[in-house]
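Final paragraph of the annual report: two paired records, presented back to back.
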Amino acid sequence: MFESIKKNKLESGVIVCIFIIVITLIVYYICHALNLGVFSIVIALIISIASAWGSYYYSDKIVLSLNKARPATKEEDQKLVNILDSLMVASRTFI
């Protein structure tokens, strides 16, 4: 189990690094095309790191707000509660 956690963390780190590199290159070439000079790579790194940080920490909130998600309540979503209760009984998992 701990090996899977370690592997997933490593894979996530690799994906974030690739994301930062790709965004840096894209923004660098855009800045270079606009003749921003030596600061193109600095601007590209700042934008890519800010983008990676924002997507890492706020992606769940962004997706939930885009889908207009809300917490399920027992009164409004009784069918969902019944389905989940049935699944818990079937899997022998109890709270």
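The closing record of the year follows.
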Amino acid sequence: MPPPKITTLAEMAARVPDGASLALGGSFLHRGPFAFVRELIRQRKTDLEIIKQSPGYDLDILCRAGCVAKARAGIVAMEGNFGLAPWYRRAVERKQIVLEEHACMTLTAGLRAAAFGVPFQPVGGVHGSDLPSLNAWAAVKDPYGSGQEVWVIPAIQPDIAVIHVNDANELGDARVYGTYNWDRIMSRAAKQVFIVAETLAPVRSFTDRPELTLIPSFMVQAVAVVPHGAWPGSCWPLYEVDYPAVEAYMDMDRELSLHMAHAPERQERVDA
């Protein structure tokens, strides 16, 4: 049997070099690897590239802490309750980060190209948009003679995909209950995959129900078990969004250190 891949959150974040490109799983305030993101801030990581179709809190807090050099993203928001992501927006407006703006489908197409091992992926739905010209995307003619042109998105291969899951085992198999958003294609496109899990489950529970495995162990380099690691977001069906905590985070006059100090993984470290 392969050796266990269990590590601590701090050790996992330490494996991320400055300047790395990270694909972060989940969507908006739901099942994002937020404890991992906060650990990157604690370790003062810099010049990171963040890749995500629908980031919010994760990209925003990394921009707030000065960890980001570039973002490849579609919609970026804190959802309807809170509107836009203010520190991300400020970083873009002040040109503190480079933004490669995408639609969710174009970023997905780039990840698919990397997963499939091809240099680009066709995509529909961007005709009439400024995105192709902003990003210098190419168009190719249909080789089968229809006369139509289609935009093609260059491959996007993250250095590491970091996915927050409900359960993982010591070998690295991981499963998600409910919607897995773009996590599957992120895990197939990236050079490495890190898993942050709510619970460490027996290997037997995966072999008994293999159809529930979203990310198989052979793709995974490391697993950290962090209960409530998606806080202040949700992880269905375990817990919902902590809206008061998000509201407190959004207070522009409140120090980031106060928010960080209330994170569940920080409390566990202090209690230990």
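The chain has one domain: 6-103+156-271. This concludes the annual technical report; the extension proposal builds directly on these records.
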